[in-house]
Amino acid sequence: MNYWTDHRPVHRSRAVDAEGIARAALALLDEGGLEALTLRAVAAALGVAPSSLYSRVRSLEDVLDLALDAALGADPAVQALVRARTAGPEVLDELLLSHFRHLCRHPWALQVLPRRALRGPHHLALSERMCGLLEHEGARDPLAAAYALSNLVIGSAMTSALDEEELTTPVDERLAPGYARLHGAGTADSEDVLRLGLVALREALTAS
């Protein structure tokens, strides 16, 4: 079940509002990760009893849906590109790179994304913008292209934390001489690698 498609009607005139729950959850997640997020912790941050939350949400999964969308909506770089009226391959690339940076700033989101369908208003606006840009570029299947590019972004964000270890851990040249030579001269970080991959994949997906 998903908060955005199955959320319950509010029966109390003074119920806790969803925006407050989202803000409290986002603060907890950014400070302490998934382990810090409980209904009791959200209620404490709002100064209410945990039972009060059930007028708005059914479970912690609903709270995660709210927090995911609130985080994206609070990202000025992503929102500026979503609202922009410009188009072109460089606009699409920058939108995807901004989403990558957003996910790197909120690593807890990378643990949640694989198990939640993103149907909040800010994620829908991002998807709408991405599909529109891909249509503008002539993608044969804009939705499939959007999925492919998004998967590349998410996977890159998941491994970005390994940048320093990957660059500094030596490679045994006896086992992989070519790799060791290239690795020793390499300086690219995950965003550089992602940019290279995005351009190549986008060009392949929009080739006429």
UniProtKB/TrEMBL annotation:
It holds the Pfam family TetR_N. The keyword Coiled coil does not apply. GO terms for molecular function: DNA binding. The keyword DNA-binding applies. Residues 15-75 form the HTH tetR-type domain. It comes from the Bacteria. SUPFAM superfamilies: Homeodomain-like, Tetracyclin repressor-like, C-terminal domain. InterPro entries: Homeodomain-like_sf, HTH_TetR, Tet_transcr_reg_TetR-rel_C_sf. Residues 38-57 bind DNA. Keywords: DNA-binding. This is TetR/AcrR family transcriptional regulator.
